[in-house]
């Protein structure tokens, strides 16, 4: 897995600068959560519209990146929930190139990552792909830090098991 990226929150007063700086990361997060490109595109656009509507209300402008990630994560979860139960259970990330936007890997790792649950995949992408701390991820996903640590632990165990099975 790639080395962790240092937190790079910067105060952006201009939304266009924020889109240039964080747009690809936010899109990758939407892909990781929704598991497919069409839903990710919808969630991404809805999230930016929501962010633009509240742009000047952010108190700590130095946390703009984390604030945007929270909005994208909520939007992606809502978009995913609006799809039918069948779609959520039967759509596979069979060709994992979509997730290559979220985190770089070889094809074997891509296939293993696609088999993780939505929450496990999201934690892996936020932590290893975008360098968020576990506490920042807890804030983004609106859950406890212990839950994030548990998801990360299970995700890594599942990845190890899946990669080991692929080698056999």
What does this structure look like?
- With 168 residues, the chain is mostly helical.
- The chain has one domain (15-167): Butyryl-CoA Dehydrogenase, subunit A, domain 3 (Up-down Bundle), CATH 1.20.140.
- It is built from eight helices and no strands.
- It has helices at residues 15-34, 37-53, 64-82, 85-90, 107-114, 118-129, 134-141, 145-167.
- Helix 6 crosses helix 8 (145-167).
- The relative contact order is 0.15.
Task: List key phrases describing it.
168 residues, Butyryl-CoA Dehydrogenase, subunit A, domain 3, 8 helices, disordered N terminus
Classification by helices and strands = mainly alpha
Helix content: 55-70%
* Spans where pLDDT lies below 50 across 5 or more residues: 1-7, 85-97
* CATH level 1 class label: Mainly Alpha
Tally of helical runs: 8
How many strands, what sense, and barrel or not for the largest sheet?
none
Radius of gyration equals 16 Å
Compute the average pLDDT. 80
Shape type: globular
Please provide the ordered H/E string of secondary-structure elements. Answer: HHHHHHHH
First and last CA, distance: 21 Å
Number of domains: 1
User: CATH topology, what is it called?
Assistant: Butyryl-CoA Dehydrogenase, subunit A, domain 3
Report the CATH architecture.
Up-down Bundle
Report the β-strand fraction as a percent range: under 5%
DSSP strand tally? 0
């Amino acid at each position: 897995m790639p080395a962790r990226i240092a937190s790079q929150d910067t105060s952006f007063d201009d939304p266009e600068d924020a889109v240039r700086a964080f747009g690809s990361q936010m899109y990758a997060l939407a892909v990781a959560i929704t598991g497919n490109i069409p839903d990710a595109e919808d969630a991404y656009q809805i999230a930016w519209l929501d962010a633009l509507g509240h742009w000047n209300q952010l108190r700590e402008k130095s946390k703009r990146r984390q604030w945007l990630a929270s909005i994208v994560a909520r939007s992606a979860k809502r978009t995913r929930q609006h799809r039918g139960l069948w779609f959520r259970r039967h759509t596979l990330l069979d060709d994992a190139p979509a997730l290559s936007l979220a985190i770089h890997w070889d094809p074997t790792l891509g296939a293993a990552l696609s088999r993780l649950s939505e929450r496990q995949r999201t934690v892996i992408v936020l932590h290893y792909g975008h360098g968020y701390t576990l506490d920042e991820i807890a804030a983004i996903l609106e859950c406890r830090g212990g839950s994030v640590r548990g998801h990360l632990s299970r995700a890594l165990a599942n990845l190890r098991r899946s990669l080991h099975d692929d080698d056999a």
